[in-house]
Write a structure and sequence with these properties.
single chain, about 180 residues, alpha+beta, Nucleoside Triphosphate Pyrophosphohydrolase, eight-stranded mixed β-sheet, three-stranded antiparallel β-sheet, 11 strands, about 35% strand
Length: about 180
């Protein structure tokens, strides 16, 4: 755990299967949120040391609050690389959670405008993903910004970085299986 001055957060990358396709749960944040207004995000949020004994607990609590996901239905199968947001200075730990069946999700009206899911095969499609290099005038240097163009929505920022990391790991695993 980091110091109390940091802005620790956790998100849940929730995977389930429908019609033979692995799907991932996403949300759209309302314009009224204090940060990342209107963006597509994974369920998740700030760590609360009073409520959460770990960052996994944060991800599960926030997913329950935001979309009604029962924490007991989630099997945590991986922790992805920690990342930080450029604008809001959050340090985010993404956890991958697997569901045995398709969830019934309900958006919390103050925290989520919309909850939806997308097939990983759609995210893997070449026409869905693009990237741009954005120059930054700080010590960060140039950053590669990823975008996923979905029907009616664009995923970018930290969520797109997490998706890109997940998809890269999955593609590498598939390649390793095929090369054996």
């Amino acid at each position: 755990m980091r110091g109390t001055a940091s802005r620790d957060a956790a998100v849940l990358v929730t995977l389930f299967e429908r019609d033979g396709e692995t799907r991932v749960v996403l949300t759209k944040r309302p314009e009224t949120m204090p940060s990342h207004q209107g963006e597509i995000a994974f369920p998740g949020g700030k760590h609360d040391p009073i409520l959460d004994d770990s960052l996994v607990a944060t991800a599960l609590r926030e997913a329950h609050e935001e979309v009604g996901l029962d924490p007991s239905s989630v099997e945590i199968i991986a922790e992805l690389d920690t990342l930080s947001t450029v604008a809001s200075q959050f340090i985010i730990v993404p956890f991958v959670g697997l569901l045995r069946s398709e969830p019934l999700l309900v958006a919390h009206p103050r925290e989520v405008v919309r909850v939806f899911d997308v097939a990983l095969s759609e995210l893997f499609a070449a026409e869905t993903h693009r990237s741009e290099v954005w120059p930054f005038r700080s010590a960060i240097g140039d950053l590669t910004i990823h975008f996923y163009e979905l029907i009616g929505e664009t995923v970018w920022g930290a969520t797109a970085r997490i998706l890109t990391h997940l998809l890269t790991l999955l593609a590498d695993s598939i390649d390793a299986v095929h090369s054996e």
